[in-house]
Each structure stands twice: as C-alpha cells, then as structure tokens.
Amino acid sequence: QVQLVEPGGGLVHPGGSLRLSCAASGFSFSNYAMKWYRQAPGKEREWVAGIGDVARAGDRARTYADSVKGRFTISRDNAKNTLYLQMNSLKPEDTAVYYCNTYIYQSYWGQGIQVTVSS
Prior knowledge:
This protein has about 120 residues and is mainly β. It is built from no helices and 11 strands. The protein has strands at about 5, 10, 20-25, 35-40, 45-50, 60-65, 70-75, 80-85, 95-105, 105-110, 115. The protein is globular.
C-alpha cells in the first residue's frame, strides 16, 4: 500500500534552515508528482510546493507558493524514493505541521512533521 513517512522536523531559530524528507513506498515513486503542504495552528492546510514526475524534470517542473518562493526548494531522489524540502531563511510564520502528498486515484498524505520557528 502507498506509504509516505516523514521523519525529522523540530525547532529552528528565525533565519535558520531545515531540510524535511518524505520516504515513499508502495508505488512507482518516480512516475508521480509530489507536493508539500503545511497547516499552521488555527489555519487551513495550504499548498507549499510541488515537483513533477520523472517525465517532467527540471526547474520548470517545480512550483512554489508565493510565501516561500526564493526560500524553499523542493527536490526528489528517485533512486531513494525520497522527497525533500529544503527550507532556508525561516520565519516564525513558517511554523506549521508539514505534510508530503501524492495523488494516485486518491490523495495520500504523510503523518506530518512539526516545524517550529522561534527564538
């Protein structure tokens, strides 16, 4: 079955960096687009970034929400079936639970990683 597992997360100071990962299994990872979402306390879940499948490689296949453009980078390692989100210049408003996601006839979600940006 499709599984998305997100280890890590944690507390980081404003201006700091953090890399999230999402280990995928149960499907042909390279053939599917992947996305990151986040949900801040008291807010709706929002899309953060997306990356195309192996047939849609390159920078044009990566898209970002305006709020993270220029600070976050989404990438994937198809040999390791792993999705990444490199987060730089973090701000307190980036504090949220982050989820990886894919859609294969239905939407699948990771369990979520808590990221807290605070001094």
